[in-house]
Write a structure and sequence with these properties.
The complex is a heterodimer of chains A (115) and B (122).
Chain A lengths: L3 E4 L2 E4 L5 E7 L4 E2 L4 E2 L1 E6 L6 E5 L3 E2 L7 E6 L2 E6 L8 E7 L8 E2 L3 E5 L1
Parallel strand pairs in A: 2-13
Antiparallel strand pairs in A: 1-3, 3-10, 4-5, 6-7, 6-11, 7-8, 9-10, 11-12, 11-13
Chain B lengths: L2 E5 L2 E3 L5 E8 L8 E6 L5 E7 L6 E3 L7 E6 L4 E6 L8 E8 L9 E4 L3 E5 L2
Parallel strand pairs in B: 2-11
Antiparallel strand pairs in B: 1-3, 3-8, 4-5, 4-9, 5-6, 7-8, 9-10, 9-11
Classes of the chains: A mainly beta (115), B mainly beta (122).
Amino acid sequence: DIVMTQSPDSLAVSLGERATINCKSSHTVLYSSNNKNYLAWYQQKPGQPPKLLIYWASTRESGVPDRFSGSGSGTDFTLTISSLQAEDVAVYYCQQYYSTPPRFTFGPGTKVDIK
Amino acid sequence: EVQLVESGGGLVQPGGSLRLSCAASGFTFTSYWMSWVRQAPGKGLEWVANIKQDGSERYYVDSVKGRFTISRDNAKNSLYLQMNSLRAEDTAVYHCARHYYESSAFAPFDYWGQGTLVAVSS
């Protein structure tokens, strides 16, 4: 199975400042035939199910604020919150949906707080 | 409006069984792969199992193989997870989730249920 790791485990950022979360996969999630990275990012707030933010590594889901952006390719990915807002306090997970058979795995999560 | 509503969780002794259900509405259930994802208390997300639209393909995380069975009843727009030989480490909130794209397994999960809590303890 593809193992996903994230760094840091947690971070505290001042309101309006940038937050950066890294995700690494043990195997490439770039499918060469369509040049797409099978990598998603989710946000989870306490007591709520996860919410899809980003898919194909950099495509923002409808309704997600443009302060959220995803980048990277192959095995190394980044989620950036350009200007942290109070409502962004949450745990963020990356997920690969590349593996065949479809046994998808999540990263361990990164907790984002306000400094 | 897409809705996924889980039920069937509860307290069960080690070695016991439970059957979780997920009632789907607001979309063409027969067009989508579906998954179960669990989250142990205070822990991260773990994908558990998924199933193709017609039930002909099913996949599991290694830790539940041979103990859990995912199934669906397309006539009832329902997804199920039969859990046998339960262990303490199966304690978690279990969410059902829809794969984003019609007909594709290889997609993120765009809709999630609120989850149902399974507690395995003597």
